[in-house]
Amino acid sequence: MAKITDVARRAGVSPSTVSYALSGKRPISDATRRRVQAAVRELGYRTDGGGRSRSGARAKVLALAVPMRPGIHVPVVTQFAVSVVTAARARDHDVLLLTQGEGDEGIGRVTDTGLADGVIVTDVQLQDPRLPLLRSCSLPSVLIGVPAEADGLTCVDLDFRAAGELCVDHLAGLGHRAVALVGSPPEVYVRRTAFARRLVEGFTAAADRHGLASAVLPCGTGRDAARTVVERLLRDLPALTAVVVHNEPLVDPLIEAFDELGMRVPGDLSLTAVCPAPVAASARVPVTSVAVPAAELGARAVHLLVRKLSGAPVPGTTLLPPRLTERSSTAPRGR
Amino acid sequence: MAKITDVARRAGVSPSTVSYALSGKRPISDATRRRVQAAVRELGYRTDGGGRSRSGARAKVLALAVPMRPGIHVPVVTQFAVSVVTAARARDHDVLLLTQGEGDEGIGRVTDTGLADGVIVTDVQLQDPRLPLLRSCSLPSVLIGVPAEADGLTCVDLDFRAAGELCVDHLAGLGHRAVALVGSPPEVYVRRTAFARRLVEGFTAAADRHGLASAVLPCGTGRDAARTVVERLLRDLPALTAVVVHNEPLVDPLIEAFDELGMRVPGDLSLTAVCPAPVAASARVPVTSVAVPAAELGARAVHLLVRKLSGAPVPGTTLLPPRLTERSSTAPRGR
DNA sequence: TTCACCCGTCGAAGCGCTTCGACAAGGGTG
DNA sequence: CACCCTTGTCGAAGCGCTTCGACGGGTGAA
Q1: Chain-wide mean pLDDT for chain A?
Q2: CB distance B284–A89 less than 8 Å?
Q3: Which of A62, A182, B87, B108 is the most buried (most CB within 10 A)?
Q4: What positions of strand D are covered by protein, i.e. any atom < 7 Å from a CB?
Q5: What's the pTM value of the predicted model, to 2 decimals?
Q6: Is A160-292 the same fold as A4-47?
């Protein structure tokens, strides 16, 4: 493995010049820079990460904390991860994967040991136990999700509140007068996961504003859970003609359950989902949906974190505006 | 952030003694070790990763290469990732996530730069382009999957060949005389992904051995693909009474497709799957299956890699024996 | 009692890189 | 023409840790 001194010798300059030529932190003449680059290429030189971080520089590693808790939707999380890695690589950083295995303290460890320069935190809860840690150790971080108290933190998320409203607005515009929200598994709400709560708020607010009858029910996954919820819904809200789902794996089972009970989508029931576009598009009936832009959120988070690391100012909270895509699962009431 | 010298001062010993007390690489008296440990605790000391790897020691980081190619099943890959992280943490290592974004050369980069000490490679193909790299740079690695030429490599995998045979044996034992294998999407075979091929081999060999009529069809995902494959299957092999599926997201659609064409599972058709246990158990009809032990494979891979890093000898190829779990999707022929 | 040896500890030398201060050479200004 | 500033490069220090060789004090053998 070639080291910086080898490159320096080959290019006929000093190691420090090589370092500067490569980092651009000091002006280097064009001729020298070219010679250095040539030497780097010929020797296949790569700057040693250990050496770099040893000397107080950044490790160029971002940590990604993904609590693999029950109730989360694996493909969405995976999409975060992939987009974060891709975006990080594009900015010359690598990604260290943290799961919940060792508790929240993984975050502290990784940064204390200098393994990572900053951390991207996912699945943020309203009162997240990791917040004090993030605030205190002044460790650069970006949250995907917005907690209750977001002062001094950098957060990115879809504007779930607006997403909830948008769905209801759409359904109300189609003439529906009774709507229900079928949400995530109960444990998600118990945990007070931020985005789930926000969606409920938006949904409820919009329903009230439009004067609609409404109901909100959490729901686990699987056909049985779907069936149970649908039955309960039809009992509680017999006038129901529209539903918003916020629970990716439940979209199909829900359509089936309604179907079995004699309500066809979209003929008898309009369905709107908040989920990644592919899920909505490939459902049994293509579902009108507000997309959860997992890939974009991941990329943005990286972008913000890297800026933060470079000392640039970053916005506090970035909420991506929801966009509703009409597919074939919604229709005017009484069509 | 406390450094090793602080600990040393506090414990009244030299930094080297602290290092030895912590690593155990030289005998240290009990009294001293205790004092050091106390100092570490009081100061909240954590050994700096940069410093460690700078001095030629290991970074205690494993890279995990997960090519997120089309046709792979995301939850399985995620399970690998989670189990790898968990197992790595249990052995005091962290995990760097590599995706295919930057091509195969990510592996080289990560180890050249000393960021990671070794790499776990997933989704191995029979002729994997990453193999030369792994062989040449003598970089410690473990493959999850077995390529065509496995000499000098450390591999772990489910014994897919035996899994294929096991499924057929089971079906033959139930009296079925015509079996089909519905496999992964075509691109997986084109890519010559190792495990997919091996399963086909085992399936075919066993079918021939039992003198069964057999067919093998790749299949994409989604209800339409399932429907098409089923129709084709019933045309090609009208006597068909048993099917092996090796395509996680297709299990349910396949059952539905057969159902729509008048073949009930297990009354008219016995179905066996090769997939993670949860998928099999929560299908529309609980499916008799050979489990893909993703979590165990991940943990084993870590185990092997860590051993390898410590210089211990490791076996070349570890094939986990398949285990078939009977559920309600298989029945004797003509029940 | 003396010598050899082992155990536990220390000091110092790096690991490969970055970065700070210095310096030589050249160009512009007064 | 003297001087100052800029530009491009170098040398050296140091990051925090590990590790090698050495050393002092004990113990066991002769």
Answers
A1: 90
A2: no
A3: A62
A4: 7-12, 14-21
A5: 0.86
A6: no
